[in-house]
Amino acid sequence: MSMIKSFAILGGDKRQIFCGKSIAEDGFGVVFSGFERYSGEAPVRSCSMREAAGECDAIILPLPCSRNGKTLNAPFADREVLLEEISSLAGSTPVFCGMKNRMEVCFERVFDYSDREEFAVENAVPTAEGAIELAMREYEGTINSSRCLVAGYGRIGRVLSSMLQGLGGIVTVSARRLGDMAFARASGMNAIPSSEISGKYDIIFNTIPHLVFDPQTLARTSPSLVIDLASSPGGVDFEGAKRLNLKALHALSLPGKAAPAASGIIIKNAVYNIIREEQL
Amino acid sequence: MSMIKSFAILGGDKRQIFCGKSIAEDGFGVVFSGFERYSGEAPVRSCSMREAAGECDAIILPLPCSRNGKTLNAPFADREVLLEEISSLAGSTPVFCGMKNRMEVCFERVFDYSDREEFAVENAVPTAEGAIELAMREYEGTINSSRCLVAGYGRIGRVLSSMLQGLGGIVTVSARRLGDMAFARASGMNAIPSSEISGKYDIIFNTIPHLVFDPQTLARTSPSLVIDLASSPGGVDFEGAKRLNLKALHALSLPGKAAPAASGIIIKNAVYNIIREEQL
Amino acid sequence: MSMIKSFAILGGDKRQIFCGKSIAEDGFGVVFSGFERYSGEAPVRSCSMREAAGECDAIILPLPCSRNGKTLNAPFADREVLLEEISSLAGSTPVFCGMKNRMEVCFERVFDYSDREEFAVENAVPTAEGAIELAMREYEGTINSSRCLVAGYGRIGRVLSSMLQGLGGIVTVSARRLGDMAFARASGMNAIPSSEISGKYDIIFNTIPHLVFDPQTLARTSPSLVIDLASSPGGVDFEGAKRLNLKALHALSLPGKAAPAASGIIIKNAVYNIIREEQL
Amino acid sequence: MSMIKSFAILGGDKRQIFCGKSIAEDGFGVVFSGFERYSGEAPVRSCSMREAAGECDAIILPLPCSRNGKTLNAPFADREVLLEEISSLAGSTPVFCGMKNRMEVCFERVFDYSDREEFAVENAVPTAEGAIELAMREYEGTINSSRCLVAGYGRIGRVLSSMLQGLGGIVTVSARRLGDMAFARASGMNAIPSSEISGKYDIIFNTIPHLVFDPQTLARTSPSLVIDLASSPGGVDFEGAKRLNLKALHALSLPGKAAPAASGIIIKNAVYNIIREEQL
Predict the structure, then answer these.
(1) Is C118's CB within 8 Å of A181's CB?
(2) Pairing of strands C58-60, B95-97
(3) pTM of this prediction?
């Protein structure tokens, strides 16, 4: 990590603030810009984009870096910042961003921290905890001793099912592949094929990004609560759930909401990993 | 369980409603009284005290049965109900109540479900989950990978520490007895004596019912969040925490708040156990 | 599973006997051949190859089906059986075998149960338990509270590390991919890169199939016991270990040795899965 | 721990050797006597009783200290040593021993490390691991996915059931008290009353020290393997098991056999705890 001694954090939400603070605690220089209107517990000195970009060896943009392709995603900034402006200020300085493909602007040297495997796995942790917090708030029983179905055994399904089991839930996992079903069983869970969801459950957590919980499946499994973690449009027929009088919630962007500090550190870790691999 | 075929649920909060509904699902007759103003999702037909007491083989009073010694604890009732009235309606009908010693009125046959060992253990589950939900809401990191201290290794400490470990927390337990410390270590946790709380923690959960977390201890352990589960006055110097700028919360009566359905079933189980043991 | 009503179990060891018995318990007809000299607790009636092949709808050969390419792997048979003979007896009957590529003889319809993903995952369970049994026998401490390194986080590493943790071991996992390291950390374990094994350990379990534990690494990690689970030549320098006075063991074919009953059922499950998928 | 700087280890088996070596690693002086015929991997210089007792500030006797009340339990000694001799050599030197009540000889200052709560809890760990090792060796399936009954939920039952669950076993616990049953259920296990053992099991572990598994109970629960951990006469009718053709094993003194190093450290810990409490 020889060359990069200081970072500019440009835009983003609370996660970026925690990211920057954690980098500073590691002994690096850190400047912030685009947080003029932020008034959280731990205040941040926000300087101008020019000043920030000029003083640093590397720039970190938020996740996603842009919502419209043209301007920086900077909810706490006091003005709109064009990505063009950042690109020209950055020059050959390395830029780290989330969801690079959302930007319609070119940067000389840009790296996407959000498409890395370890980033996705680490984010499964705050996602799973956010889902559990939501379930605890909305469900009138305890997770302990409840029948929980985790539909899908990808990164989130794997972390979430293990946490539910750790709380004493009676966990069933659905998976597409027989090998994943075997893994779940070896961990002491029940496993069923995702194509044939069956059984009765108290709480259903869905992570499969296409329609699995149609009205028939919802009626058959009769949950007290359904939490859909799959990105829009999700895997639950919410209209159908309403007609069946089932409480169904679509929980999106949990990491940033449930655990901004943890999410900021996950961004930091991914940036560090890129720096190491790319020998920046 | 030969003689008792029907129950009257007199007063109480949501827990008693769930208790009664669960008893009804077991095939017993159940009548409610003292829920006239309740307007939850699952409505309850509330009859008069006289009618309810007259129709049943056993009466269940809430937890606590009274807050002032003289009237029934019935937040959803449309009038004040004197315990004297219930006592005279009950006659020799068995009465099950929580915290019997709060009542200044005599009943012919009265049993306290709240002083039973299994009742206390089962309530440790919703208490622990309620504490975890609160920690997830208030803490900006994840419990996973966080350093958690559970002070006290009684019923709640035992259940809570195991759940935190199941979520991937790095758990330290404090206990008074060396044997309890050995149990915690055998479970893969760190253990320290309660008389010498040391180390740094992200989240502290206190279950010890006397002052353990004085300002010095709070400063030394430097938690981001302190949750006190011990009944009033608790084991945390909240004033001191404020001066140290530490977020400290006193969480009381968690079972009823966090998981009324589970709490209702726990009351039901204890009542059934008394009926079996006393051969009522 | 409409067409196949009976199975012939030809050759193999104790696993095949358990496989056949478990199939019989499911209600299918089962005949055995090639077990003339078997004298275990649960005797098996062994008929002739001709009789067995003639009476069945499907044939199950062992794992591996052959050790030399030409004859059946049948340690309990009273004579050598040529694969040619079985092939001609089988005709168009479906044949299920393990390690098909070891055979130099053609079959009309042959399916390999041993190259299936779920078969490999399920076998990780008896492999992990066999490794733990060995560690318990050879190590003079307890796994509980011991520092255990599991090198490699494939199927076996994943199951084994979780079991060691369940026993109260202090588990470090080594992995090649950052994503796998993140999964291990989310499960409450330490994780290090396989390319830079570091730290001190009481017990090392290796699952990586190339030389990782050279004398330098062994000296640096100073284990009391090394168990190599990787197939020959394995990942441990056994000569070097000897010179360093370290106890190092190469544990091969654990499933069949440690848990023949479980292994037989795993074979059965894989055969059933093939039948379902191929609609035999 | 101011006054005691050196220890004499007099008699005992491998555990005492590990105990002494571990004490020496903590920086104390350690001399051994009564190990003249010991020829293990790590040799021990055995001096005379007189020399050993004369050179030390404290004496550690084995567990049990005597088998007949009169002579030291010293299987590796080259002669019989009378406890009278040790008593007179010891004088006012503190003596730590296991099972003090087995001795018919008086010592001036004697402390029993074996009747301490934390000693018993810590010994539950090697006992549980020894039982699991035995089960793995004798059972032809895997513990993972097997139905395991742990009869009795005392120290050993508590540690053992949790380890079996960590291996993926399907664990049922039997207990006498409803509170203990509630704890087991909160941990995700099944719980049944010890007075009404029911259900079918693959492996039964008994820890209850009176006859629970009579022929009727054995027949009804139909286990493949029964391991009795209760001290003689144990809780299993072994004759009846034989008639039923059930494999039943009485496993005694597991800690010393399965994990002498761990057992030696447990003795050391208890001695240190006595020194601290008694301010020796």
Answers:
(1) yes
(2) unpaired
(3) 0.95
